[in-house]
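Q&A log
Question type: sequence-to-structure
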Amino acid sequence: MLIPGKTATACTVVSNNNTAKAVGSGQLDVFATPMMVALMEQAACECLADALDAEQTSVGSAINVEHVAASPIGAKITATAVIEHVDGRKIELSVCASDGFGEIGRGKHTRIVIDSRWFMSKLAETKGQ
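Response status: OK
Response body:
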């Protein structure tokens, strides 16, 4: 069920592939902000996944996060998503990320539950695919 308080996590390890230098969001070998955001979204997807019908999925519609601390190569990063509010198909979540040293990021994320086939059909109509 999509109920406030439900949580899920996603984890990764900082490597040469997910640093700011590697993804072009900076020049340092530290965990990249875009990769932190992606991990937060992964946690949010996991939080919703078991409550959706087989033909449903969710899409991100808004995210507002702060990246408050750097993480070096080798650090284990854990992102957590918590459902805050459910309004029909709109799900609002709080998200945070931490490494072995403490919190590295936090924010809010909104996802919308959609019918996958309808969504892809409308995309094809509007984008000519």
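Response note: The beta strands are 7-13, 56-67, 76-87, 90-99, 102-115.
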